[in-house]
Amino acid sequence: MRVLGVNALFHDPSAALVVDGQVVAAAEEERFSRRKHGKRPVPFAAWELPELAMRWCLRQAGLRPQDLDAVAYSFDPALARPAEAMGLHDPWDHLRLTYAERAPQFLAAALPGLDPATVRFVPHHVAHAASGALASPHRRSSVLVLDGRGEHASHLAGRYDGGQLEVLASQDLPHSLGLLYESLTEHLGFLRSSDEYKVMALASYGTPRHLEELRETIRATDDGGFLAPIPDWSRWAPPRDRDARLEEASWRGAWADLACSVQARLEEVLVDLARWVHDRTGDRVLTMAGGTALNCVANSRIWRETPFEEVWVQPAAGDAGTALGAALQVAAGGGEDTTPMPGAALGRGWSDDDLAAWLRGAAVPFTTPDDLAAEVAQVLAGNGVVAWFDGRSEFGPRALGQRSLLANPAVAANLERLNEVKGREQFRPVAPMVLADRAAEIFTDGPLPSPYMLFVHTVRPEWRGRIPAVVHVDGTARIQTVDPAAQPRLGATLRAFERRTGLPVVVNTSLNTAGRPMVDDPRDALELFGSAPVDALVMGPHLVRRAALFAAAAPEAASVGAAR
Predict the structure, then answer these.
(1) Residue limits of the Carbamoyltransferase domain (predicted)?
(2) Would you say the C-alpha torsion 560, 561, 563, 564 has a positive or negative sign?
């Protein structure tokens, strides 16, 4: 079967293609349109489809719309209920239902030649669950899904065995841990359904002063669900003006304490829910998806405090991943033997020759070194910042060595420096990228390997002074382990950096600036390199140095001045 998965209704629109049970491509619309998150999650935008991502997926496989056996849409309008019946205040929510019901016609208009009858509706949380369990390396696993909302629920607990899903529990709206966290995000002056990761970072600067009060109302229930009424946040901290600068003094004040308290309670409830699932399945593996599964602090507590031996989280765990899950679910339902996703590098890529052509077309001087790793390691050891563009782009919100900014972790000031380069808040941490075979020496209290940057580890005390730039205020780090066999160019660079510095770790943060999607194509990379204070740009095997770029530009500028 040739199945195109589509996520469109809420946020992070995306597309994925599964052919004969194998994941061929997956990408988020924002990487093409350059609109962060693709669109805002409001009813008036629910009609927008990931048209650019859908077309690219088909081109990647050499398919036409009429070649598709099915289009899997990750929402089933037949399961939806009116907002007021779910206890939600959203007078325009009926627009979402209208647009979802007409999705076959919208898709056929966007992809001429597509038969609307090929469109299959996949329940939202089933699509999330499939994106975890069917994309994972495990044939059998328990599955836990939590997010803001689906058709009428915010949670699914179950089990996959041989491609078949058994639902054990779900939680009806309005109770939603995702909506609870979104509400807090908005109260703290951040962008709702976008900046929840900032709340997670801010929480580390606070103390859980309100945890006991939160435990009284936010709790797991005996049936595998939970209660999560949204409190009046103002009783603990005033709302923050979104346009006001968050000064350092505020990082450790009432807002940080509130963030810390809610984060702690979220972690406790998630642990309780995971234990409930394990009590009923006894499985060795838990797979997770849904936007809440991007909370890497909570993921680590589930790994540490539940009987599951392994926790596997879908790298595009948010709504973007439902495109992948919907396609896999339809393929499995059609009798296909689906195979695990090959990794997160499922987006666009260019050949070495194509990248060289881009550089020549932009009149950018570059070299193709015999030992690229050694030259990049030299830049990093000299405290330069490197923009790294290599291979197919990542599916999901984490930069994993395809579209990354790299720096020296031994220089504590690089945390502030990179946040300034990216134009973001100074309480935000940056992450360590570490050789997989060295990770256990440096990091503990988390699963290894950790290739998708979805867990938090404790930095061993003897290493904290050696890599201060990547150690968060609470002594933890959100790590990415690198296997040189899977990422040879990146692995070689880490080895070369270790030979120079004794450190098998570099700073890794996403290749973008605040408010913009991650760099995806060569033009994006060149634009960022031209506008941000980055010392070098790697594009595949090619290396551009800022000094050489300015030196090449200087004679041209001088000649223009002389002519005037």
Answers:
(1) 2-72, 117-328
(2) positive
